[in-house]
Amino acid sequence: MFCRGGLRGGRYWRDYLSLLGKEDYVELQAGLARTQMHGFDMPPETEWDFVQFFGGLKADAGIGDGDWDVCRDRIYDQIENAVPSSLVAERLSEYRKYRANSPECFLHLGSGYGALEEKREPGITPEGFSFPYSSISEEEEPWLLLLEEGRMNDAEIPLSCMVDERWQPLLEAAAAKKSSNALNLLGILLLENEETGKAEEAFRKALDIKESAFTLRNLAQVCIRKDDIPAAIAYMSRCCAISVMREYAEEYIALLVSEGMHDEAWPYYDSLPDELKDNERVWQETLPAALSLKKIDFLDKVYSKEPTTVREGNRVYSDGYFEYQAMLEARETGASLDQTLIRKHQEEDTIPYYADFRQG
After folding, report:
1. What CA–CA distance (Å, rounded) separates 169 from 186?
2. Among the residues of 150-245, which ranges form H helices?
3. Per-residue b/e over 282-310, b at no fewer than 16 CB within 10 Å?
């Protein structure tokens, strides 16, 4: 759930997600379930349709004050006055007449997966939908190759993955031809469908064929699910020795930091090329290690600029600021750098607006 709160950090989040200093970010969501936290399964061969009205209405500021049930009924009455239920039913009946119409032209083509599924199972496309073959792109082509020729290409890192179990027999047949790519993709499908043991077996077979960073990373994920963190770290170490890629570096550092292995995380970060050292995703994962090891030069650089990729709910950047300020004071005054000094800066709360991502 989005819980940004009303404190300065929460207000900054709304500002940060919109146009800084102009308008707050507001997100309206609507769906068949009651809230984002609720859900339900749609049975096979089932059809649901609905109509939505979007707009605004004016109401007294106090309409939401008081007993929750009473306030809800007041708001429902306001909505009913603005958009009567009879009008909603009338529009739904009207629009149902057009649901089977085929599009006359395409303004934009999305991904080619609809066309790919139609190719896999002709007739699966719902009435009124159209997924032209021309929508299949480079991303879907490996799966088209699997359908038409029963094999996968030898991509080092696949452009896409499938987790739908209907693709499993096809992947198993391709994997039997000693394709490391097919084995990796089969392993991902199995892992996502809670078949951890079978997924590990597929990844190990892929590793026997070819030691690739991608396979080693997949095995690390298996170990994390099995709560075998030392093995996961060992696999990620081998992965990152083969490939210097931002995603791998980010995951490896995050794994080391999660285990408090700051003395291992920092040297690895420090060995990375400059473009990766300067990548926000990478240095954000490194920040706890830098704080622990008092890497002032790194912290000076981090806190001298406004971040652009902080993930919602991540407080490492904001919370680390107070420890950084305590380090600066200790360096300037000779004071002892301890929790008392850190708490002093937390209580003073002088964090710059641009660095405050706390949502309390």
Report:
1. 9
2. 168-175, 180-192, 196-209, 213-225, 229-242
3. bbbbbbbbbbeeebeebbeebbeeebeeb
Task: Report in angstroms the alpha-carbon separations of 36 from 4, 105, 165.
Answer: 16, 34, 26
3-state secondary structure at position 30: coil
Task: Please spell the DSSP secondary structure of 44-63, one letter per residue.
Answer: TT---------------GGG
The pLDDT profile of the chain, 360 residues, written as one tens digit per residue, is 456 667 788 888 888 888 888 878 887 777 888 887 888 899 988 888 899 898 888 888 888 899 999 999 999 999 999 999 999 999 999 999 998 898 889 999 999 999 999 999 999 998 889 999 999 999 999 999 999 999 999 888 999 999 999 999 999 999 999 999 999 999 999 999 999 999 999 999 999 999 999 999 999 999 999 999 999 999 999 999 999 999 999 999 999 999 999 999 999 999 999 999 999 999 999 999 999 999 999 999 999 988 888 887 788 888 899 999 999 999 999 999 999 999 999 999 898 888 888 876
**Using an 8 Å Cβ cutoff, are 128 and 102 in contact?**
yes
Interatomic CA distance for residues 317 and 13, integer angstroms: 14
Q: Is the pTM of this model over 0.90?
A: no
What three-state secondary structure class fits 23? strand
- Which residues share a beta bridge with 19? 23
Contact 179, 151 (CB under 8 A): yes
Q: Which residue has the tokens 């000094």?
A: 341
Distant-in-sequence contacts of 91-97, Cβ < 8 A, 24+ apart: 91/51, 91/53, 92/49, 92/50, 92/51, 95/51, 96/49
